[in-house]
Amino acid sequence: MQRLRPVVFPFLLAGLIGFNLACSERPSQSDTRPADERAIRDAVVEWSKAAGAKDVEKTLSFYAEDASVLPAHAPIARGKDQIRKFWAALMASPGYALGWSATKVEASKSGDVAYEVGTYELTLNDPKGKPAMGRGKYVVVWKKQADGAWKAAEDIFNPDQ
Questions:
Q1: 117 and which of 59, 66, 104, 132 could share a cystine (Cβ 3.0–4.6 Å)?
Q2: How much is the pLDDT for 12?
Q3: How many CB atoms lie within 10 A of CB 48?
Q4: Which of 2-16, 73-87, 113-127 has the lowest mean pLDDT?
Q5: Which pLDDT does position 16 carry in this prediction?
Q6: What ranges do the domains of the chain cover?
């Protein structure tokens, strides 16, 4: 029995260590939410600038391939072709001027989805040809793409009045 003790002890110790490691909590991935939220806030600034500059293609580049836009008083625009048509028509409207800013951005702990809430100001000419500015609010759902870029997946907005 004395001879077996030195041989068994290392195996017993290794087994206990392995069991302990298997039962202990594994460290989770680092929290990327602050960086994700900063990346989205930065994208929002650039996206608003592109829309304000009437750059349809740059504006479109912030959307995922399968995105949807849900404008007030209009049908849903699904996919980049329909979204392009929506933005082109809006930007071609007389007196068009648009800008928006995020008031809240929150990314998920999983790091693959986030949402943004904000306000916008849109100016279009009224029926008499005079500029009429309207304010509204919006929600955008963002999804992280395979390449790590954040793209808008769902975009809904409506006027305050």
A1: 104
A2: 40
A3: 19
A4: 2-16
A5: 42
A6: 33-159
Q: Bridge-partner residues for 114, per DSSP?
A: 107, 142
d(CA 53, CA 50): 5
The count of C-alpha atoms lying within 13 angstroms of the C-alpha of 104, restricted to the half-sphere facing its C-beta, is 7
Instruction: Tell me the two tokens of residue 27.
Output: 């460290």
Pair of tokens at residue 91: 């930007």
- In sequence order, the β-bridge partners of residue 99 are 121
Q: Sheet containing 131-144: which strands, arranged edge to edge? A: 77-78, 63-71, 150-159, 131-144, 113-125, 97-107
Rounded CA separation 67/76 (Å):
10
In whole angstroms, give the CA distance from residue 68 to residue 80. 8
How far does Cα 105 stand from its chain's mean position? 8
> Do residues 117 and 103 make contact, with C-beta atoms less than 8 angstroms apart?
yes
Domain 33-159 sits in CATH 3.10.450.50: yes
Q: Give residue for tokens 């100001």.
A: 121
How many whole angstroms separate alpha carbon 28 and alpha carbon 37? Answer: 19
Distance in angstroms (rounded) separating the CA atoms of residues 114 and 149:
12
Separation CA 83–CA 122 (nearest Å) = 18
Rounded to an integer, what distance in angstroms lies between the CA atom of residue 140 and that of residue 125?
A: 26
